[in-house]
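Exercise (ungraded).
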Amino acid sequence: MVQQICRLGGKICTRLTFLGEIMNLTNTDTPDEFILEQSLQSFFRPVDPRPIFVDRLKGRLFTEPRVQLYAQKPMTLWLIIAGGLVIGSLLILLLRKPRGNQS
Amino acid sequence: MNEASDETVLLQAVGGDNEAFNQLYESYVGRIYNYIYYRTGSQHDAEDITSKVFFRAFNHIREYKLKGVPFSAWLYRIAHNLVANWYRDRSRKREVPLEDMVHLSHRGEHAEYTLVKTQESENLMKVIQKLPPERQQLLILKFVEGLSNVEIAVIMRRSEGAIKSLYHRTLLSLRDSVDEDR
């Protein structure tokens, strides 16, 4: 039907062809696909998580420290600053000229 | 949980209310577990990744935008990313304990019927495992979670039309693969 109308040509033809394609794409009721969908439906059955897992996770969620990552960020910053100061001090001590030997 | 109460609870959870987050957790833990279970095929990994999803959600709930994607889609995206990391880290694509999944699907049915169905399911599983991850994701969201194309489109960041088209192509490729196996 769509193809017959399309023989008339022009923009309408293009649009109808497109419409036909869309209809084909959305129509999944051919026997094979219907059977396949039914097989998928019976294959993919919902699986319940173990109740003990659900309860334990709930317990852990509200007892373990929240956002540890944020707590570590300032600590890392302080460590970098402290490390920089130590390395800087050592470099100054090593590279400065000894004053006592001047004559 | 309906949308209105979902939004109220979400508002409270975003504000730092643990009890509200607990309600969200109870509403979604089964769905997220299911999704991950069918992606990984392992109960142990499904539990591990589900834990990570909810810890990440709990830690970042304040960053969740109420006017953005639905909360379920936000959780599925976290789950999707963690499953992708799981595949990448362990480099064990499509290593699914097939027998566990197939037998689990047919508990409580007659022996002969189960035998035939199990054979069918094994073939189907083999074919599904060969699909690209996005197509597997689409099938799980559609059949396990029972989501609509619109909801799947939000989770997978595509248009509804693209999802319809992908679904159709997935069915065609599944049908061809099943035919080849026969």
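Further reading is listed at the end of the chapter. For now, observe: The interface with chain B takes residues 22, 25-26, 28, 32-33, 36-37, 39-50, 53-54, 57-58, 60-62, 64, 66-67, 69 of chain A (CB under 8 Å). Residues 1-28 of chain A have pLDDT under 50 and may be disordered.
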